[in-house]
Each structure stands twice: as structure tokens, then as C-alpha cells.
Amino acid sequence: MLGKLRVFSVLIVSVALGACEAGTVGISDCDGGPCGGGDAGLQVDQYVPKANPNDCKNDRDCSHPYVCHTTTHRCVPPSAKNNGLCSLIEGTGCDDPNHECIDGVCQPPPGKCDWNEDCPGALICKDHQCAPDDKIPGDGCVVKADCTTPGTICVGGQCIPEGDCKVPHNDNRLAGAWTFSSTLKIRDGLKGFTKGLLGFAKFANDLITGRFEIKGDGVTSIVVSELGRFAGNEARKYLPSWATELVAWLAALNDVLDEWKIVSTETLTRVGPDQYIGVSKWSQIEFDYLGQQVVTDPKNLPGLGQLASLPYSAREVCGTFFIDPMRINSSVGNIWRWALEAAMTAITCTNKKINCQTNLNSALSGLIDCAGLGLSASNSNNNLVNRFAGTLEAGCQVAKDALITGLIKELSDASVTMKYMTLRGKADISNDSQLTAGRWYGTLGGTFGGGNFEGDFSAFRQ
Asked: For the whole prediction, is pTM greater than 0.90?
């Protein structure tokens, strides 16, 4: 059945540049220093970004997350705290001759990396080296010297004409509320998460096809073969009508884990010429599953509740909009269980021939009736099968219970350990009301994360 299933649960993600406590701005020990602006303890919905002063004495004088530059005493994005801002055209602003002006920020030439968040601007971590994004057309570059064509300059990992940096514009033209439509390739950032799910799918499939192996005292290879053959012939009698659909659902998990579509509102406040503070609020999550679109307005998502974003820094440089790294501090892993159960609901509750299943634990528990399978074996005319009927039932139940326990634990562990996601982005400014060709560079953190992923976005002014 093709179509769109709307699941009524919501997520509003908490975004932070540092380790600030979710729901507050200006924690005094955030990243080893003040969170700025004297705003410690304010709830996010109380926080109103203010214009940065012309000079500052310390980070608290600046509007969070901007910080006070150590020598110029100007408020700058966190990445520019020690090295400062610079001009790509004039090449001014970098006091250290060994630093490069990369997308308006002075910094050492990008080198080795482990994560996308280790690289500046629109560079990605590829083979442990910061490199241009090969998804962006044109001549790629890391520093200005890579652009050998006269009259070109390196901006956002691309060689562009210097004239693009001289287009007259209002230095607060991006201020206001924007609707972002994003696609995130989440699957690329995962590691090890699907082991339990795929293990359960294999157990069910092996049982149905007669490849299930019973282990126990006195169980020889001949017994294993006979019990496996019997189980393969009988198992379908003890599977509920929706079991084969559920097995197919487990086998198609890549659909759920692969690509997520996000709709968010990004509110940008000018704090200096072409400098902004952004606040993010996610209003919709969507993924495709077996031809259906599963959509949520995520506010009531279990384990997350109402979360709001902390501020991030952003800026315009040469007609390109840069979003500095934002850290999503929340139990990101809770999203996975919701997504899996939403996909299960999409399959079972839209098919009148299948019992509607909304809880993963109960659905898996009812997937195979091991007691019924054992009773059938005890009534079998095959003496060998009859003799080991109890072994068959016990082996079926032990394997099922172990896999369910492992799967639920895996999901619970993901909720606990997958606590953050970082995103850094850039987009072309088509006009004062439209951003195009946007790219996200992300990293999933935690036991099941630890990988890089990318994404795309476009945006329109509200």
C-alpha cells in the first residue's frame, strides 16, 4: 500500500555548541569557560540574542555563543576566538603568517581528521584528511593557493570568481525565520546498531526454512537435522498471520535507517555585519519505508519530550551562508526505537489482514509460539522428534528470549549512549529569501555512532 502514514509524535531538538546543559543558556562551566552574555540559567524560550558590542573584555560581554577575541577584543564565532576573522579578498586579518583565511576565519591549514566536525567551513573528513566536498560541482579547494585560475578565490571548498565577494547587499539580509527542508543520510553515521535486529530476523527465517539449530545434551547432528526439518515444516502453523510481514519488515531496516527528511524552523538574529545567531526547532521527521512515507510532528516522542535549541553561530561570506558546528544534545537514540515501531505500525496497522502491532517487545514475543511447536513435536509420529520435543520447545524459547532481550537492550543502550549529533552546513544565497544547494556535514556520537554522515538542504524565508 503506497501513501503517507502520519504518526503523531514530535521532536524539538536541543542544539548546542558545547556541553551546556539542555534547556539553559550560559552555563558557567560550558566547555571550560563561560557561556557568555551573562545569560546563565535562562531557559531557551527566554533567551533573546542581543547585538554584540563594538568591543569586549571577556566572553560574557558577547551574545552566546560568540566569544571575545583575545587581542582585538571583538566578539567572534567560537572557532575564531584565538585567531580572529579575516577578509578573503584582501587577505587581511590573520596575524600569524602560517594561518589561512578559510571562509572568513583565520586558522591553520586543515590537515588530518577523524570526524567531519574536525574540518572547517565546507570541508569533509575523507580518508582522515580534510578535503573538498566532492558532491559540490566545480573546482574543489582547501586554501586559496589551490585556485590557480586568475581572479578566483576559495570559498566553501570551491574556487569562485572574486567578484562574487563584492556584490552589494544588506549586512542583515538573512535575519528572520526560515523554513529548512533537509535530508540526512543517517545510516552512514551508524555502526553496530542493527546487529540485534538482523539477528532476530535471521532466527525467524531459519526457523521457517528448517535451518534452526537446537543445542543441548545428547543432541547429535542427526537430531539437529531432524528437528530442523520438522520445525521448518511446522513453524508456519505457529506463526501469526502477520509474522512473515514482520520478518520482511526486519529485513528491510535499511529503509528506516538510511535517510531521514527533516523540516525545521531556523531563526536568525543579526549580532554584527553578516554575523548571526541561529536557533533551531525541528517540526517534522519523515522516512520512506516499503513505499510509504512515515511522518511525525515529533513533540511527543517517548524519551525526549519538549526540547528546544541552544544558539549557534552563522555568517555570510562571499554570497555563501555558513552554519558553524551545532551540537544536538539529546537522547538521539530514542528516535531509533520510535522509527522502528512507526515502521512496524505502518506495515501492520494499514493491512486489514494483519493484527495491528504498535509495541516492538510484544510483537516479537508473539512472533513464534514455541510451546505450540513443542506440543506438535510431542505428538509427532517421528520417534526422534517426539523424544526431543522438550528440547525443541526449550531451544526455541531460549533463542527467542535471548534475541528479544538483546534487541531491547540494544535499543535501550542506543537511547543512553547515542546522546548527540553534530551538524555543520553551508548553502548558496540565491537571494534575500532563498538558500539553495545546501550541504550538511554531520557526526553521530556515542557507542552506536562514531561515524560521519552528510545531507542536503534548501531554505525559504517564512
From this structure: no
